[in-house]
Design goal:
- It is a single chain.
- The protein is an all-alpha fold and 134 residues long.
- It has one domain: Four Helix Bundle (Hemerythrin (Met), subunit A) (Up-down Bundle), CATH 1.20.120.
- Helix content is 67%, strand content 0%.
- The longest helix is centred in the last third of the chain and has 27 residues.
- It is elongated and about 45 Å long.
- It starts with a helix and ends in a 12-residue tail after the last helix.
């Protein structure tokens, strides 16, 4: 896979998953969870443009084949999305501790994916020393 494609994928993860997963969490003041905000969070996590956030993440950067999976930020974001998937029942019940925990995790997913995109963007190609053979 070309470096430009890896950069594009990292940017897509940050935007298509990170930004949208954290959309509601970023805008809920101090745990003020109304039924509408809970529904918005549920949509961000489990109906992100027609698929679950974890599914969107794995579609863009599958663990088995994506070079992004080698980065610790990818692993952390993946683990957080798995935790968010496991929290679905408690979130649908509107349990305050679960909602706060989910908001925190969603913000961390965004942060990790932004960091991943920055790291990939700043990586410079490995240069061979002068005089070395290909």
């Amino acid at each position: 896979m070309f470096r430009s494609e890896i950069r594009r994928l990292a940017s897509a993860l940050a935007h298509d998953v990170g930004k949208y997963v954290s959309r509601t969490a970023r805008n809920v003041p101090d745990g003020a969870w109304t039924p509408d905000r809970v529904n918005m969070l549920l949509s961000d996590l489990y109906n992100l443009r027609g698929e679950r956030a974890l599914q969107a993440f794995l579609r863009l950067a599958p663990a088995a084949t994506s070079p992004l999976a080698a980065f610790p930020e990818w692993t952390t974001a993946h683990d957080l999305l798995c935790e968010l998937d496991a929290m679905e029942h408690d979130l649908r019940e509107g349990l305050a501790p679960a909602l706060s925990g989910a908001a925190s995790r969603a913000l961390r997913v965004e942060s990790e994916l932004r960091e991943l995109a920055l790291r990939v963007r700043s990586c410079s190609p490995v240069r061979k020393p002068k005089g070395s053979t290909p």
